[in-house]
Hints:
Layout: E1 16-23, E2 33-38, H1 41-52, E3 56-61, E4 76-87, E5 93-109, E6 115-120, H2 130-143, H3 145-154, H4 161-170, H5 175-183, H6 186-206
Parallel strand pairs: 1-3
Antiparallel strand pairs: 1-6, 2-5, 3-4, 4-5, 5-6
Amino acid sequence: MADHGMNAGPTPVQTQLLPVLPLREVCLFPRASLATIAATIPALKALEVGFRTGGRVLALLQRDSDLSAWRDLYALGTVAQLGEDLALPDASHRIELDGLQRARVVTLLVSDVMLAEVETVEEDDGGEYWGAAVEALARYMHAHAELRGFLEQQRRSAEPMSWVNLACQHLPITASARQKLLEAEGTDRCMKIARGLDALLRKEQER
């Protein structure tokens, strides 16, 4: 009897369909949380669909911060679990997002609500460079005592990389630089954030 398994092709990539929540000026990283304001119709519809279909959305950074540029998005973002949803007087919503896992858009369907077929992107643990990144973060937090308490509130995981991801998400860098960190593998992200934090601290101390 022939073994049909011998002729099987590559295992198909597992994908999922998620509503897309456009973000301006900020990225959501895995194992971190983010409070953001949803004010545009596409963002509000993404929340509506997300809450009806399992409580998850794909958070993607807009390439341009202009409200009208919500269709122009980076292809890699983070699958987010929707948390507290607070309706505001101006009809916008303040929403809490918990980052779960990076994901890349395979197909984007654009209408009143954007839907994306996505494949998840695995994270590594930063390897030997994780320690240097955390030491750099500790030095930075020593100079900014209020930052430690804030990051501890935002932390959603006991995994070591969560500290690095929180630093990438909340420190004062440009949105495009943040996106590059999100797209980087864990090891590279640790190297970049370690160098960046020390450079930022030196610059602040020279003022």
